[in-house]
Amino acid sequence: MLPIPPMLMIGTSMTTIEGAEAAAVLAHALACLSTGAPDPITGPDTAAWSERCVEVPWVAGHLADSVSILDVGWAMAPPEWLGVILATQERGARVTGIDIVDPQRVRTRYPAELVERVLATPTRVESILDAEPIEGPYDTITCVSTLEHIGFDIATPPETTDTAYVRAKRPEDAVAVRDATIDGRFLDAAARLLVPGGRLLLSVPAGVGGPILHQDSLGLFTYQYEYGPADWARVLADERFILADQACFRHDEVDGWTQVDSVEQLTDQSSAMRPYATACAMALMTLR
């Protein structure tokens, strides 16, 4: 048996999936998974809600037929998304997580009713950018609110117990530069790991575009990438994939989350130094 790595003390105890937002999003997303119909939650009732209310039901609605799923960003996934992915296991899907952080290190962050199942799920502790199809290709890759962190996040050594990632204590010390090849390398990996006709389900924060400063739950600083029209267009234009579906949403403090026709309608938005995105884009891309 491999030794259990030191545990990060994120919070004082395990929590449950509770609260109006998380409970409503998970319940609705599970209905979308069951029906196979993407149906984001929008409208004034979502004025105080994060982008989870649109991205999780939308992606869940595209998973009904998935048999083998690779979830990118598994260790740090929000509870609503964890609930959906674990539900696909109950439906018979083979699920594998991939993350640069071992879930064992952050096991106190998982809801009490999910923690054992999360830790029992096979997980590849490595960068998706370097992943090879060692256990056979997947028919679905999910990447929910994760691509924007790739190229910025660096895992701390396993013996570190205060933070999972290398982060800055001051905004001016956070690294704002992201390798311009990251998105292309991510799509390279997806093409390697998917079966022909396999699906890549992707959600990202959208807006002005470029690196934006973010303060995490520990008060530390990092950057993440916000996708503007040109950035998003480059992702969707990869000739190895066919764009099967996409959706864009924006947030307003009065109207809540609403759908818009294109990412070009989100260029007045920015999530810099906000706890959640104020706009997002999602895509379903199939490998040729």
Keywords:
alpha/beta, Rossmann fold, 8-stranded mixed beta sheet, 6 helices, 22% helix
Short synopsis of the structure:
The chain has 288 residues and is of the alpha/beta class. It is built from six helices and ten strands; from the N terminus they run H-H-E-H-E-H-E-E-H-E-E-E-H-E-E-E. The protein has a domain at 20-148 and 179-203 and 227-259 and 275-287: 3-Layer(aba) Sandwich (Rossmann fold), CATH 3.40.50.150.
Could you describe the 3D structure shown?
The chain has 6 helices and 10 strands. The protein has a domain at 20-148 and 179-203 and 227-259 and 275-287: Rossmann fold. It is 22% helix and 25% strand. Strand 6 (210-215) and strand 7 form a beta hairpin. With 288 residues, the protein is of the alpha/beta class. The strands form 2 sheets. The chain has an 8-stranded mixed β-sheet. A two-stranded antiparallel sheet has the order 6-7. Helix 1 (20-35) runs parallel beside helix 2 and helix 1 (20-35) runs parallel beside helix 3. It has helices spanning 20-35, 52-60, 79-90, 115-120, 182-193, 229-236; strands at residues 68-72, 94-99, 123-125, 138-144, 194-205, 210-215, 221-226, 241-252, 256-260, 279-287.
Helix content: 10-25%
> Biggest sheet: strands, sense, closure?
8 strands, mixed
Taking all residues together, what is the mean pLDDT?
A: 93
CATH domain class of the domain at 20-148 and 179-203 and 227-259 and 275-287: Alpha Beta
Unreliable segments of 5+ consecutive residues: 1-5, 9-15
Task: Annotate the secondary structure layout.
Elements: H1 20-35, H2 52-60, E1 68-72, H3 79-90, E2 94-99, H4 115-120, E3 123-125, E4 138-144, H5 182-193, E5 194-205, E6 210-215, E7 221-226, H6 229-236, E8 241-252, E9 256-260, E10 279-287
Parallel strand pairs: 1-2, 1-4, 2-3, 4-5
Antiparallel strand pairs: 5-10, 6-7, 8-9, 8-10
Helix pairs in contact: 1-2, 1-3
